[in-house]
Amino acid sequence: ISGITTIQYTASDEDNRLYPPFGLGEKPISIFYSEDKENWITIVKDERNTGQFLWDSSSLTEGRYWLRILVRDQSGEIDEDISGPFTIDTIPPLFDVVALPALSRGENVKITIKASEPLLESPNVIVRQRDFSDVPLLVAGKDDLWEGVYEVRSDYDGTARISVEGKDLAGNKSITIRKGGFFNVGISPPPAPVVASPLNNEAVSAN
Q: pTM value?
């Protein structure tokens, strides 16, 4: 998880029906978090018995955590539930982009995106050849490895740029390319050379 996270919970007590003075009060819930399941830090106290709470975890360091929900009835008896472990991830992914061939003479270019961590979904990939419009590239794959094939357009020789936008499993979004991100296109031949001298039918001397 990352940033604002919704904690959902519910608690009930048969004493609210059978012996109301001993049942749950109006706000019997407290919520805590821990990195070791021993030292618990309060998130919020005195919440209603059923509902949800928006927890801002952005100030915490990356790592594994647990949540603890504690309920207290009006007689002072308590019970609790501890969540399974979950990971707080605040660092967005980085992308290494490889384009093969690095110099296209007109053949299609295979583009491979290697993310620094598994992605939540397929990344958005855009290819832009020199002086040509942006072309979305359909990529397939899973986790941290995604691939697609770009059809090279003629008449747009030069350097083509690749942009990537993706989200990790915690929802952290990134457009940062760590390595690669371009390839070159050279389809059209260079202009023919021009002979400037000697001129046509010009007489020249060997001296």
A: 0.68
